[in-house]
Amino acid sequence: MSTLNGKIAVVTGGGSGIGLAIAKRLANEGAHVVITGRRQGVLDEAVAVLGDAATAVVADVSQSSSLDALYASVQRRFGRVDVLVVNAGGGVHAPLGQITEAQIDQQFATNVKGVVLTIQGALSLLTPGSSVVIIGSSASIDPGPTMSIYGGTKAAVRNMMRSWITELKGSGIRINMLSPGPTNTESLRAAFGDKAEEGLAFLHAKSPLARIGEPDEIASVAAFLAGDASSYVNGVELFADGGASQA
Ligand SMILES: NC(=O)c1ccc[n+]([C@@H]2O[C@H](COP(=O)([O-])OP(=O)(O)OC[C@H]3O[C@@H](n4cnc5c(N)ncnc54)[C@H](OP(=O)(O)O)[C@@H]3O)[C@@H](O)[C@H]2O)c1
Question: What is the pTM of this model?
Answer without folding.
Answer: 0.98
